[in-house]
Amino acid sequence: MLEKRFRRFVSEVPNDLVDMLVYELSEFFPQLGYLLTEQGETTRVEFFLSEEQEIPLDIKERWPIEVVGVETNQWLDAFRKSFEGVETGGIRVVPPWLQKGGNEIVIYPGMAFGTGEHESTKLALNLLTRLDLLDRTVLDVGTGSGILAIYAAKAGAKKTRGIDIDPIALDNARENAALNNVVVDFEVADAYEITGRYDVVVANLVTDLLLDLKEVLLGCSGSFLILSGIPKEELHSVAQAYGRPSLVAIGCEWVSMLFVRGNA
């Protein structure tokens, strides 16, 4: 069996520009995992992409990004061991080797897929845990590693669907669903082409996408809509577009918003 290869990228930027770089990368790779190492007045940003993934030219022209190596699955497996899990809303997100049972979501970490460590994922999960999902239908837009969709399935949703444009991330999501003994319909799909209606819709994306998808997300959410991936400074622009949220989860740099729809 051929080992999958990952290119290792590094960028060193001033501390006050780190969020901007991560934001731009997230527009094209919504579930990108990255390592941040502060070095005085600059921060080293390290991330990994599979060989078939390309960084857009305009980003490479604006930022000092360089390839520093190529790693294989064996190295990636060793790196995964550094993931110790996170907790939010009374739910622990853990790798299989730290599984203890109880309120856990088991995730096999990947460098290009979310592990729940990003604040926007934790905030979205926190809001999701506040809803009664029993026998409801749930759609997770930009599902990545499937954390939010898997939680919904474990919480009793009668049907859960997770969509993403990245087939590699969805392979990881399916693996994670199996680890949690739940059934989730994961599929490659364009968010602009969503059809149907769901009781609960969760969209952990970036602000520009959330604004562009306003009519789609409002149209497919029947009872509750959760929006995440919103930097604090962009809260008002999202609220202006979608209306006043019923609940806002606020982190250090990011916010998530819960909207109660007409059929709640």
Order of helices and strands: EHEEHEHEEEHEHEHEEHHEHEE
Shape: globular
Largest sheet composition: 7 strands, mixed
Strand order of the largest sheet: 10-9-8-11-12-14-13
Q: What is the tally of helical segments?
A: 9
The CATH superfamily of the largest domain is Vaccinia Virus protein VP39
Q: Can you give a write-up of this model?
A:
With 264 residues, this protein is of the alpha/beta class. The protein has 2 domains: 5-78, Alpha-Beta Plaits; 117-260, Rossmann fold. It contains 9 helices and 14 strands. It has helices spanning 18-28, 57-62, 73-80, 119-128, 147-154, 167-179, 207-212, 214-220, 235-242, and strands at residues 5-14, 34-39, 42-50, 65-72, 86-88, 91-94, 104-106, 137-141, 159-164, 185-188, 198-204, 221-231, 247-250, 254-260. The strands form 3 sheets. The protein has a 7-stranded mixed beta sheet with strand order 10-9-8-11-12-14-13. Strands 2-3-1-4 form a 4-stranded antiparallel beta sheet. Strands 5-6-7 form a 3-stranded mixed beta sheet. Helix 4 runs parallel beside helix 5. It is globular.
